[in-house]
Design goal:
The protein has about 260 residues and is α/β, with parallel strands linked by helices. The chain is built from ten helices and eleven strands. The chain has helices at about 25-40, 70-90, 105-115, 140-150, 150-160, 165-170, 185-195, 200-215, 215-225, 235-255, and strands at about 5-10, 10-20, 25, 45-50, 60, 95-100, 100-105, 115-120, 125, 165, 175-180. It has a six-stranded mixed beta sheet, sandwiched between helices. A three-stranded mixed beta sheet has the order 7-9-10. The longest helix has 20 residues, at about 70-90. The model has no long low-confidence stretch (mean pLDDT about 95).
């Protein structure tokens, strides 16, 4: 049965998708992921990890959802799935995808919506949609292009080829490749480090990058002036600068963990 589990490790929301045996992306995962993101936001999570505890991260969409639908019906159910992609991108905290095994089609698109991707050494990536005569319905083609450029993105989608974690890392789609046994611990450790940082600044950075990707650079500059200046009113900035001025740059750098970021 498809389900999504949510637990909190300090201020990190850990989301685990469960849909054996193929870990297919279906309506249950859409509902579960949206609920997990809502609860994480309400509980003021400061980072999130999305993972699967099975041998595979995702085998892609459950294609039985594609049958007996006309264009309008397809648009309606895909709009619900797209809500998950937007919720991840709009979440007020960084989201890490920790992927392993098969990371295909909708599963890859889910990972691409995250701020960055950590992959186990055994991960196999593919946008397989062309094999069944469809395209990437959740933005895979152009979200790949954001990371690796349009030429490589087109190759990945047109050929429906299968690619290794190392190849995706060389193309800047994957941020880090780690041993299989270390994947979840590594992702959680980085998420914990992020969660201890300045939450307001991180949320603004996320918004700035998203704004720049969907607008032009000059518009992003205006957005920065209008929105990012909010950090000047945060306790986190004043506490950190106060520590720097009191103790000097050397201690500030070497003992930075002494600074407590309250997220406000």
């Amino acid at each position: 049965m498809s389900q999504v589990k949510l637990e909190f490790v300090d201020k990190v929301a850990v989301v685990t998708t469960v849909n054996p045996p193929a870990e297919l992306f279906d309506e249950g995962q859409v509902v579960g992921l949206l609920e997990a993101l809502r609860r994480a936001t309400e509980n003021q999570a400061r980072a999130m990890v999305i993972k699967s505890d099975s041998p595979n991260f995702s085998g892609g969409a459950d294609v039985t959802m594609f049958l007996d639908k006309d264009r309008q019906a397809a648009r309606e159910f895909l709009s619900e799935a797209m809500d998950v992609i937007w919720a991840i991108e709009d979440a007020p905290f960084p989201v890490i995808a920790a992927v392993n095994g098969f990371c295909f089609a909708a599963g890859l698109e889910l990972a691409l919506a995250c701020d960055f991707i950590y992959a186990a050494e055994d991960t196999a990536f593919s946008q397989v949609e062309a094999m069944i005569g469809v395209t990437t319905f959740l933005g895979g083609a152009y979200r790949l292009a954001e990371r690796c450029g349009p030429g490589i993105a087109r190759e990945i989608v047109y050929t429906a080829g299968v690619y290794s974690a190392d190849q995706f890392a060389q193309w800047n789609i994957v941020n880090r490749v780690v041993p299989n046994a270390d994947l979840h611990d590594e992702a959680l450790a980085v998420a914990t480090r992020i969660a201890r940082g300045p939450a307001v600044a991180h949320a603004l950075t996320k918004s700035m990058v998203r704004h720049a990707l969907t607008n032009d650079t000059r518009s992003a500059d205006v957005f920065t002036l209008d929105e990012a200046t909010a950090v000047f009113e945060t306790r986190d900035m004043h506490n950190a600068i106060g520590y720097l001025l009191e103790h000097g740059a050397r201690r500030f750098r070497s003992n930075h963990d002494e600074i407590v970021f309250e997220g406000r």
